[in-house]
Amino acid sequence: MYVCMCKGVTDHQIRREVDSGARSFRDVREATGCATQCGKCACMAKTITREAVQKA
Ligand code: FES
């Protein structure tokens, strides 16, 4: 599912970034561009990142 419409970032992509070493939402944002435009996706993207980091 798309989390960030502006940058076309999916939840899958966020999890993949965490799998490849991202450890914070800042890392995910820098790698994908997620939440760098309107910012509406930031809350959900942070939640997905947090969950993925906890499982990693
Ligand atoms: Fe992610 Fe707009 S939906 S920056």
From TrEMBL:
Cofactor(s) this protein cannot do without: [2Fe-2S] cluster
Annotated ranges, domain BFD-like [2Fe-2S]-binding: 2-48
Tell me if Electron transport is a UniProt keyword of this record: yes
Say which domain of life the source belongs to. Bacteria
Q: What keywords is this UniProt entry annotated with?
A: 2Fe-2S, Electron transport, Iron, Iron-sulfur, Metal-binding, Transport
The UniProt entry's sequence similarity note says: Belongs to the Bfd family.
Recorded protein name is: Bacterioferritin-associated ferredoxin
Organism name: Halomonas cibimaris
Source lineage = Bacteria, Pseudomonadati, Pseudomonadota, Gammaproteobacteria, Oceanospirillales
